[in-house]
């Protein structure tokens, strides 16, 4: 049973809807819960088998497949067809790819093992920046995808970053096909205005029952957009530092997101108010249990009379990493010129609530902070549930 149309939902609305539907309908498979992941689903192996029928797969010699569980069948198909299989290292911590090298004369059983996450560790060799990878086909996981080829991942940006890095390395070309493998219920209408210029689009969608060619004409990312990379992300991905110094030597502008606050703020604020309103017509409750201990609450000393005001509008900031300090969030808020009149920090629950004087200011904050990454985590930013009955 397909999900209802996504309408004017935000990316997070769509992700939550897909994750909830997969769990509630009994379609979710190990690892569970699927929330926060590229979800594994009943029929994923069957969907992966359709890869063999694609001409772009038959022609490909080197295939890059993400390490997610629902793509295990795609990794196996590449190995069984004796293609070179490249799998990105999890969270890009130790490099970009591992090349899976099955032992000579490997049995079916060993190939099956090579396709699992443990097998990738046991049978792989790292590929450095100078490994001359030439990827002919890219297979990525998705949380949701539209028949037009718009893709929504789990929100951390790693698939987009991997693709951008492959472009910078010269490992993929503009016409390198991209395939995603999902359950039928993950194929949804997605509004094009939700897409950013760094978002990866797909050319083929494989489900347990269908093969969809999207004929997507939207250009794919043309390399790393340094103005969207934070210092935190750079610190977590060593290979990104190497790529950055190479691109700097080649004369490219490699200024990071947090090194150009005024410009970053202008870019983010350029999103129209209509889009922000559309993305926040259905705010949701903040996840997590009741606060433990005393949350950290700060008021703006310049405007003490606004504290507790009925007219204040609250913005929810979630997915805060455990290592993040309140000072780092405050510094980001200053940088994007969206300092709230009151900040309620609930670090133990990985969230914070920001009070703004009015709805317009709160909407601007949501718009400015959308897609911001702190401590390596993409923040979830939206109007708090308490605003649902207002405005």
Automatic annotation (TrEMBL):
UniProt-listed InterPro entries: FTHF_cligase, FTHF_cligase-like_sf, MTHFSD_RRM, NagB/RpiA_transferase-like, Nucleotide-bd_a/b_plait_sf, RBD_domain_sf, RRM_dom
Region (Disordered): 280-312
Record-linked CDD domains: RRM_MTHFSD (cd12270)
Keywords, comma-separated and alphabetical: RNA-binding
Xref: Pfam families: 5-FTHF_cyc-lig
PROSITE patterns: RRM (PS50102)
Family matches, as SUPFAM superfamilies: NagB/RpiA/CoA transferase-like, RNA-binding domain, RBD
GO cellular component: cytoplasm
Domain RRM: 313-386
Domain of life (superkingdom): Eukaryota
Single GO MF descriptor: RNA binding
PANTHER family: 5-FORMYLTETRAHYDROFOLATE CYCLO-LIGASE-RELATED (PTHR13017), METHENYLTETRAHYDROFOLATE SYNTHASE DOMAIN-CONTAINING PROTEIN (PTHR13017:SF0)
Protein name listed in UniProt: Methenyltetrahydrofolate synthase domain-containing protein
Lineage, top ranks: Eukaryota, Metazoa, Chordata, Craniata, Vertebrata
């Amino acid at each position: 049973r397909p999900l209802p149309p996504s309408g004017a939902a935000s990316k997070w609305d769509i992700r939550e809807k897909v994750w909830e539907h997969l769990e509630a309908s009994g379609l979710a498979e190990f690892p569970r819960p699927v929330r926060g992941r590229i979800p594994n689903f009943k029929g994923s192996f069957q969907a992966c088998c359709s890869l063999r029928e694609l001409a772009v797969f038959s022609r490909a010699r080197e295939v890059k497949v993400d390490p997610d569980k629902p793509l295990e069948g795609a990794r196996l198909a590449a190995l069984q067809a004796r293609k070179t299989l490249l799998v990105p290292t999890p969270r890009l911590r130790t490099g970009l790819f591992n090349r899976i090298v099955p032992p000579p004369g490997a049995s079916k059983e060993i190939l099956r093992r090579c396709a699992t996450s443990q097998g990738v560790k046991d049978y792989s060799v790292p590929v450095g920046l100078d490994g001359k990878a030439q990827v002919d086909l890219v297979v990525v996981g998705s949380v949701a995808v539209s028949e037009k080829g718009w893709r929504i991942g789990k929100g951390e940006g790693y698939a987009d970053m991997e693709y951008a890095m492959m472009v910078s390395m010269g490992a993929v070309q503009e016409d390198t096909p991209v395939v995603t493998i999902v359950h039928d219920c993950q194929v949804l209408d997605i509004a094009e205005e939700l897409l950013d210029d760094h978002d990866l689009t797909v050319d083929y969608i494989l489900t347990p029952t269908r093969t969809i060619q999207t004929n997507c004409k939207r250009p794919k990312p043309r390399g790393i957009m340094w103005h969207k990379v934070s210092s935190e992300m750079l610190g977590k991905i060593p290979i990104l530092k190497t790529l950055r110094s190479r691109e700097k030597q080649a004369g490219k502008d490699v200024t990071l997101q947090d090194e150009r606050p005024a410009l970053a703020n202008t870019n983010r604020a350029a999103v129209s108010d209509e889009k922000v309103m559309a993305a926040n017509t259905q705010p949701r409750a903040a996840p997590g249990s009741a606060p433990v201990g005393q949350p950290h609450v700060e008021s703006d000393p310049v405007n003490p009379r606004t504290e507790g005001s009925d007219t204040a509008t609250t913005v929810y900031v979630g997915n805060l990493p455990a290592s993040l300090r309140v000072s780092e969030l405050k510094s980001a808020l200053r940088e994007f010129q969206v300092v709230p009149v009151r900040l309620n920090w609930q670090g133990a629950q990985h969230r914070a609530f920001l009070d703004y004087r009015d709805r317009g200011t709160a909407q601007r904050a949501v718009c400015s902070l959308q897609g911001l990454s702190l401590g390596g985590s993409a923040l979830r930013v939206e109007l708090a549930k308490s605003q649902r009955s207002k405005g």
